[in-house]
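Narrative of activities, Objective 1.

The group set out to show that a structural description can be obtained from nothing but a protein's sequence at a throughput compatible with the screening campaign. Below is one input-output pair from the validation batch, recorded exactly as produced.
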Amino acid sequence: MRRRDFVWPATLAALTSCVKKPAGGVTTIQFGVQPSPSSAIVYLALERGYFRGAGFDVQPQVVAGGSQMAAAIAENRLDAALQFAAPGLFNAVTRGARVRAVLGREIVTEICGDAAAIYARKKAFPKGTSDIRQWEGKRFATGGSVNMGEFFLDTMLARAGLDPKKTPRIYLNHAPAVAAMISGSLDALVNGTNLPIAVGEHPEIVREAAGARAIAPLQYSYIWFGSRLLAAGIPVGARLLAAYLRASKDFLAGATPQFLKDYAASSGLDAGALGGCRATFTADGTIDMKSLKTAVDWGIARGFTDAGASAEALVDTRFLELARREAV
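Output recorded for this entry:
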């Protein structure tokens, strides 16, 4: 299977218009997931029957883009979603959409994972890359202006006391960014995902963890509930999160879903490398409000997020509080 065959296109037109209970009292949930290893816990819960045991028929809907995912959950085409801290969602909530973050997921850590890692052309950094102050003025690829790579880089530079505006951006994805570094037209790229970037055959490119170290343990990914799950009542949503937390406990203890093995095989990546790093997930699902506020403030400062947005308005912790008591 080729990688492009594995990353299925978003099938938003097929999403149901409401949470429904089919025969047998099982609630069907359209759950938006990313086409990446970050969705592993959802698939583990499916494989082990945890969602079904909690009374849910969870149907993963693979949505490749963050903006598409944000629109789908805000417009009630998804009932729940794994989604980054996205300005589109912040704006939707500020403008009245019934969407809330209910569980915290991924964090930046230098221990493992690749989120916020910097890949740099050595010749562009004659004094080395470990001092973030040396990054000012260098040409960075972040993948896009309103994405996690841009958020990570701005946050790293700001915490080093630098003005992010003085570091130019080139909006290239990973493959063309690596090619641009090899040619000398780009100095570095920021990884906005947790997938490692293959540069082993290019010794002129080095990986740097100083940026991740500077912003860790910044939390950047959450489970979001849409209007129907929010309206279904705290016990219903808590059962769904309890099933997820049960799978999360298994995953953090070493269980690997078949999904992750298939992803590695189809992507030409090492299954051990993908499954060996689990410290990038928040173990108990706690939402770090400081991290969420950092994302909101960044969006407002860049003009991506409405000025009236607040981190507190984005969160509903009642589902997680009850889910922790139900998780086994």
